[in-house]
């Protein structure tokens, strides 16, 4: 449930945010449809998804959104996990699509069509919810809650609607669902509702594996509480010990989806003995995740650092530069603060902004050295600091390049992704 709000001005801007989110999806969809018709597809793999059924109105309207990873996700939603390499995709999104399709199929008849339509509905519904969540989270980082603050939060949401990862928000990808759960978890952090935060971060972990990094927020809570409360008498010390115990449980909650999914994969591939078992089953601590990522997706330390990947590093460069600049600019400011202890006590910086920027910086390094580096554009689209940083640059008359980047990647994404050309 989204957090409740009060106030006429607040509600007015929130209605504007909802209208902005919905209208941006309509405009983006129309452009994607037109550009798909104007350019011939590079690949026709989408046709395999519905090869046993006639091309329908639903496929004609939304088939151009089913590209790259979307084919894997919808294949899982339609037929379950068949191949080992598809286990790189976590189950909550395809399971949600499958569940909604059971309702929609009663109205449109075709199973493939119901899967595709369900995925488009879910992705775009969660985008609207994410926009509302970003608005409320942004307002929560302000002190006065004035009309200027509401207007600033609205402008942040406008940037989200122009995100360089926009085409993935429109398509059957996990991005919008993951972003909503992430933003709600961060809202729980800033409101000091840690159990709520751990629940939403756990849901994020059922969508994508990198949500386990959110455990860092609860580790930060332990460190922060130790600095602020441990040396302030027995009563505060007892409260600190209790909060530490709670944080350990909250970390466990965040890890639960990852561990359950690994157990599910283990049961599928490692229960039967003999030649049919996968090599990772023989590991001391059997984990399918690293094995599948390395064998099928070429993920791993410096595995992507080759000459032929230079174009992908170029595609990743804008997000990489903004991420390094935004995270380190903030953290250096905090380090140079005259009273770091006061910053730790601060509701906004102490609870949320410092650990969030540490996470942003750390995740940037992880993507740079371990991931397919071009995926940073869509992976980081759920980090609110991106939009806060660009908004600040615009207010300082330094935002022309980031805005140009946002617009350029929207155009490129619409042209390339919808016609099955390589995109981030």
Automatic annotation (TrEMBL):
Which domain of life does this protein belong to? Eukaryota
Q: Which GO terms describe its cellular component?
A: endoplasmic reticulum membrane; mannosyltransferase complex
One Pfam family per UniProt: Mannosyl_trans2
Instruction: Tell me the pathway.
Output: Glycolipid biosynthesis; glycosylphosphatidylinositol-anchor biosynthesis
The UniProt family comment states: Belongs to the PIGV family.
E.C. designation(s) = 2.4.1.-
| Transmembrane spans | 17-35, 115-137, 152-174, 195-220, 240-261, 313-332, 352-371, 401-420
Q: Which GO terms describe its molecular function?
A: alpha-1,6-mannosyltransferase activity; GPI mannosyltransferase activity
What is the organism of origin for this protein? Answer: Planoprotostelium fungivorum
Compartments where found: Endoplasmic reticulum membrane
> Is DNA repair among this UniProt entry's keywords?
no
Which controlled-vocabulary keywords does the entry list?
Endoplasmic reticulum, Glycosyltransferase, GPI-anchor biosynthesis, Membrane, Transferase, Transmembrane, Transmembrane helix
Q: What is this protein called?
A: GPI mannosyltransferase 2
Described by its record, this protein's role is as follows: Mannosyltransferase involved in glycosylphosphatidylinositol-anchor biosynthesis.
What is one process in the GO biological process aspect for this record?
A: GPI anchor biosynthetic process
PANTHER family per UniProt: GPI MANNOSYLTRANSFERASE 2 (PTHR12468:SF2)
What's the protein's topology in the membrane? Multi-pass membrane protein
Q: Does the keyword Hydrolase apply?
A: no
